[in-house]
Amino acid sequence: MGRVASGELTSTNGTVVWDGIGILRLRYDGTQAGLDALTSSLRTRLGERVLPVEALRAVEVSSTGLKLVLRDGADPLQSVTGGQVLMDPYDFPQVDPALAEQIARDIRSTLVRRDVPATPSARWLLAPPAAPDRLEGRDAILSVANGRLTFAYKRSAGRKKKSLGQQWSVPLGEIVDVEWTPNQGWLGARGFLRVATDSTPVERPKPKHDPAAMRIEGGADVDALFFAARLLTRIRP
What we know:
About 20% of the residues lie in helices and about 30% in strands. The chain has helices spanning about 35-45, 75-80, 95-115, 220-235; strands spanning about 5, 10, 15-20, 25-30, 50, 55-60, 65-70, 90-95, 135, 140-145, 150-155, 165-170, 175-180, 190-195, 215.
């Protein structure tokens, strides 16, 4: 069971600090034994996130812990993953149930008092993790500059990948979606980051052949995730 402090809930995933007014601070712990490399890296690099109560749709308390349920469109990190992050950054297991229920009640009261709707958010309410403007992958290098996203394909990229040229760029204003999928291990599928525009076909080629996709280097899943989340906030303010 987690160690308890006033207004603070500690779990195996990290610590939830509720200020009693309208701000949650989520502090992540990536040092727990038995974590896979992706989960450990993600927790460690997330560090601390600030979550305003307006980003919440609900707070759930169960025998297994406390879970923060966010409104759709509130968090670019959650939006770009499509639910594929192995460690849910808003699920905090093994907490003190009495304190969890007390904090949950207070948050629910604040949601009602501030009249926070459960509908999707019209804007991002959490900042994306910091990310550079350049990301190197297995078959391409992505860069953002002057309002455009550019794919610079490597020599190893195939003919189909280069069908739009040795380099291909798209105005950020024409991108309608950003997708991230992590590497699945040596025997699994390779991870990728790809974008979609209004002209993207419904049936897309595999990432290996898709000009609008970059396959992720081994060990760079979190780098690609943070790049994707930041890119999403650039196309959807």
